[in-house]
Amino acid sequence: MTTGPILGLDVGDRRVGVAISDPDRRFALPLRSVERDRTDGALDAIARIVAEEEVAEVVVGLPLSLSGEAGPQAESATAFARRLGDRLGLPIHLWDERLSTREAQRRVQGPSRGRGGRRERPSREADVDAIAASIILQAYLDRQRLAAGGP
Predict the structure, then answer these.
(1) Domain total of the chain
(2) Which has more confidence, 110 or 69?
(3) Where in the sequence is the domain holding 51, given as residue range(s)?
(4) How far are the Cα atoms of 15, 73, 75 from residue 12, in angstroms, in the given order?
(5) Which is nearest to 55 in space by CA: 26, 28, 16, 21?
(6) What is the DSSP letter of 120?
(7) Is 1 within the bounds of a domain?
(8) Predicted pLDDT at 67
(9) Which residue has the higher pLDDT, 102 or 92?
(10) Is residue 75 part of a domain?
(11) Domain CATH code at residue 32
(12) Rounded to two decimals, what is the model's pTM?
C-alpha cells in the first residue's frame, strides 16, 4: 500500500483549491488556492507543493452534473488531471465532487446572521476553493478507509 499524504484539488476556471491529508490519510486540511492562467503556472505551483509535502497521490474533483453526466467543467477537470499526471508521474484519481463548492460556501458563511437578520459575508481569509478541495479529499479518504475495512 502506498503511504504518504494525498493532495486534493478542486479545479475551477480561475483557481485550483488545494487540500492535503495527514500522512496517515485520516483527515483532509485546506491548504490554499492556486491561480490558473493560460500558461502552466498552476501545474508548476502544484508540482512544488507535491515535492515539498512529499505527496504520494492526487485526487482531482470531477464536477459531474446532478444527473451524473460529464459536461464541459468535467472535461476541463479531466484534461487538467491528465496533464498533471503526465507532469508528476503519480497516481491521479478523479472523484465525484457534486455540490462540494456549495458545501464549502455553506461552511464558510455558516448559520450566523448580521444586523437586520442578513447573512454576513464570508471573511476574505476564508478560501472557499481550498475548503472545497478538503471536502473532496475527505470524501475520498473516508471511502478508502471504509473499503479497507477501517473505522
Answers:
(1) 1
(2) 69
(3) 6-147
(4) 5, 8, 12
(5) 21
(6) P
(7) no
(8) 75
(9) 92
(10) yes
(11) 3.30.420.140
(12) 0.82
Can you say whether the dihedral through the CA atoms of 135, 140, 141, 145 is positive or negative? positive
CA distance 74 to 55: 24
* 3-class SS shares of the chain: helix, strand, coil, % to 5: 40, 25, 35
From residue 37, how far is each of 27, 42, 54, 79 by CA, in Å?
30, 7, 25, 15
Q: Across the beta sheet with 92-96, what order do the strands follow? A: 28-35, 15-21, 6-11, 57-62, 92-96
* Model pLDDT for residues 7-60, shown as the tens digit of each residue: 999 999 899 999 999 999 999 999 999 999 877 899 999 999 999 999 999 999
CA–CA dist 29, 86 (Å, integer): 25
Q: Which tens digit of pLDDT belongs to each residue from 23-37?
A: 999 999 999 999 998
